[in-house]
Automatic annotation (TrEMBL):
InterPro entries the record matches: Acetyltransf_C, Acetyltransf_C_sf, Hexapep, Lipid_A_LpxA, Trimer_LpxA-like_sf
Record's protein name: Acyl-[acyl-carrier-protein]--UDP-N-acetylglucosamine O-acyltransferase
UDP N-acetylglucosamine O-acyltransferase C-terminal domain mapped to chain residues: 181-261
Gene Ontology CC annotations of this record: membrane
Organism ancestry: unclassified sequences, metagenomes, ecological metagenomes
GO terms, biological process: lipid A biosynthetic process
GO molecular function, one term: acyl-[acyl-carrier-protein]-UDP-N-acetylglucosamine O-acyltransferase activity
Organism: hydrothermal vent metagenome
Any Pfam family matching the protein: Acetyltransf_11
Keywords: Acyltransferase, Lipid A biosynthesis, Lipid biosynthesis, Lipid metabolism, Transferase
Gene3D superfamilies in alphabetical order: Hexapeptide repeat proteins, Udp N-acetylglucosamine O-acyltransferase, C-terminal domain
Enzyme Commission number(s) of this protein: 2.3.1.129
Keyword Transmembrane included in the entry's annotation: no
Length: 293
């Protein structure tokens, strides 16, 4: 339990409907409007704004300019309409100007899991479901209705299209735009292109070496070369019997409605052979065949 007392700066404006737990600290010029529940030890440093309905879990910190629960940026939403709002988990960090919009739905709120880190000027759109330990680096924008699995990492200036799904432990490189689903454990290096596996993240999260090996084999077979989804699923299912991680990828692909990002692909064998022989200093003609002396 928090050891610090609840403190509210005299310039803060707090709704009478708000429910503040022990140890909450609300700094200058913050506003809390409507039905808002703040868990133990929640901190609003200064000029943070929350529009209810909203629930914020224990130990979460909102930095200056963070805005939570305001109306969705959806042209179909009528301003002033009721909404399920926002639910944020415990021990999250929402840095300067981070925004999370309320749901368009009356039943399911926009949700952010535990221990997420939203860096400055990052955005989570309406009706999104964000897992635990997700990192959004500066200026990343997640559009409405997206789903993000646990431990996913978004580098700076990443843009996600509506309804996109991001799998667990996925990694998105800086500046990429993504309009297709990204399977678990995969890295996106270019627009809608898988560049490989997030091996560093897998190791750091304690995935066994044998599991990583199985995922690497499945990735080479199913994503390096474009193949039909039905064939991909058959290959993944065949490999998933002894590998929960591969089974997770198969289940993710099976549930995709937008399609899954393809891999970068292998270069043609004749090209790789030509490059290898050229590095060895062999005399080659224009099409890669050794010339007769």
């Amino acid at each position: 339990m928090p050891t610090t007392p609840t403190t509210i700066h005299p310039t803060a404006i707090i709704s009478p409907e708000a429910d503040l737990a022990e140890g909450v600290q609300i700094g200058p010029f913050c506003t809390i409007t409507g039905r808002v529940t703040l868990g133990p030890g929640v901190r609003l440093i200064a000029s943070a704004h929350i529009q209810g309905p909203a629930t914020i879990g224990e130990g979460t910190t909102l930095y200056p300019g963070a805005c939570i629960g305001f109306e969705p940026q959806d042209s179909k939403f009528t301003p002033g309409s009721p909404t399920a709002g926002v639910v944020i988990g415990a021990r999250c960090l929402l840095r300067e100007q981070a925004t999370i919009h309320a749901a368009t739905s009356l039943d399911t709120p926009t949700t952010l899991g535990d221990e997420c880190f939203l860096m400055a000027c990052s955005h989570v759109g309406h009706d999104c479901r964000i897992g635990n330990n997700v990192i959004l680096v500066n200026y990343t924008g997640i559009s409405g209705h997206c789903e993000v699995g646990d431990n996913a990492t978004f580098s700076g200036h990443v843009g996600l299209h509506q309804f996109v799904r991001i799998g667990r432990l996925a990694f998105l490189s800086g500046g990429v735009a993504v309009g297709m689903d990204v399977p678990p454990f995969c890295m996106v290096n270019e627009r809608n292109r898988l560049g490989g596996l997030n091996l560093v993240g897998m190791r750091r999260n304690g995935i066994p070496r044998a599991e990583i090996t199985e995922v690497r084999r499945a990735f080479r077979e199913c994503f390096r070369t474009p193949i039909p989804t039905t064939e991909m699923l058959a290959m993944l299912d065949e490999r998933s019997g002894d590998s929960p991680a591969v089974a997770e990828i198969a289940e993710f692909v099976r549930g995709s409605t937008r399609g899954v990002c393809p891999g970068m692909g292998r270069p043609p064998r004749v090209l790789t052979t030509w490059l290898q022989r050229r590095r060895r200093g062999e005399i080659l003609d224009d099409v890669g065949h050794a010339q007769d002396d």
